[in-house]
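Many introductory courses stop at the sequence. We go one step further.
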Amino acid sequence: MFQKYTSIKILLVIIGLILVNILANSFNKRFDLTKDKRYTLSNETLKIIDNIDDPIAIKVYLQGDFPAEFKRIQLETAQFLEELSSRNDNIKFRFVDPLNNTEDLIKKGLQPSRLTVQEDGKMSEAVIFPWAVISYNEKIENISLLSNVAAPTQEEQLQKSIKNLEYEFANALLKITSEKNKKIAVLKGNGELQDIYLYSFLKKLGEYYKLAEFTLDSVEISPEKTLLDLESYDVAIIAKPSETFTEKEKFTLDQYIVNGGKTVWLLDNIHAEMDSLMTTGKSMVFNRDLNLTDLLFHYGVRINYNITKDMYSSTIRLASGNLGNQTQYEDLLWHYFPLVISTTNNPITANIDPILLKFPSSMDTLQNSISKTVLLQSSPFSKITGTPSTISLEEIAENPTRTDYSSGVQIFGVLLEGEFSSAYASRVKPFQTEDLKATGNSSKMLVISDGDIIANETFRGEPLPIDKDKWTNQPYGNASFLLNAINYMTDDSGILKLRSKNLQIQFLDKEKAYQERTKWQLINVILPLMLLGIFGLVFNFFRNRKYSS
């Protein structure tokens, strides 16, 4: 009877274990116990991966032997991809050792990163390939897992990289699984930048959007058709115009904005160029009449007629002498080229390199119903000079003081959002249109007081990358900033907000760990033995006491 009862109990336990396993496989639930919800996917990411119906393969080149601190990014990437895979079975990933085919990876544009590693108090150099490659329906997208943004320490660079993991993967998945359905017009006809100076940024922008030139000249012949054609575009970019806008052209843009069109205004209210300065050593700075002041004033911003210098600035390369027959060059600070570093957690400016501006003017915001967000501004140590004036290369030799640069923080770029009213609501219309609107749909507008923010440099007639200095290779965030801004304007998915996601990531203090290594080794070895010895003595004491009595 007892044996039969025991057999029944064993059988019930086995059946219970089988049921538990079946239920565990059927109902898979993951719990994120981190304070900052690091492993919880955002609603924006969930929408993207829930719409993936075909298989996606993700290959991550973070396998193999590399420094301990970089195993952190390997672990974080693996855990994030596990979250994606558990949500959608179509997403498969694997980690690959890149050292087996380094040449092929470099040919595909996956450049390695050289890192300085400190272990056991010694410095060494390591080479890793921090890349992931997504394959989907014969399309391929590369993701850099190591942030390119300049950081004071490698720990901070790794921290930024981990913070950006969800955005980088979500953005790549959205890009590779969706078709280009947004159109961007690059306006021409008012002396805007030539194509060779827009090449670098437009090439990057073309990966996300359909691009086309749009000439406003046709408004003189067929104004209504021009307006109708322009309204088929989601965003219009006005890149450094140098010729006056007519009232018909302004009215066309006004109605485009009121009807919900987004605009990016990159404007130089003054004429200041490096060409004449490098030739003669001096250059005249004078006002440029674009006839846009009243239009922008109505929307809520004003670009002033001045030029702003900043103590925090970039450099220009000048000849400093000769060594034999070779001309020697030196990179010298040029305060007319401010470097703008964002201190806000705005998704447009978060985690990007400093933004280079050239001869910017200050801006003012005006009170109206439109929401305004300052995206670009100077350091507190700026200096405003009215125009017309003269600038000279001799200014490089000056030793600036904070007393001289006391104009305070100046605005260089503003994002405007809201329902814009027409600047021509109570004015004579340059032409009549059947769909005239005084107020309209909600829209967005970016106004920057420097047209060169979008311009790449050239070398021997060929365009250079916009994201680094021609001579020093210093990284700039101009392209990232403009792309983020346009993505924000057209973003239906809302993934750009992931750029400002906050994570609390703690790294080991390697110097302190090395200095205190012996102490902690002794504690880890001796303390358990001491506790075990004390337990043995106490146990024997009470055992002897119990049985001796």
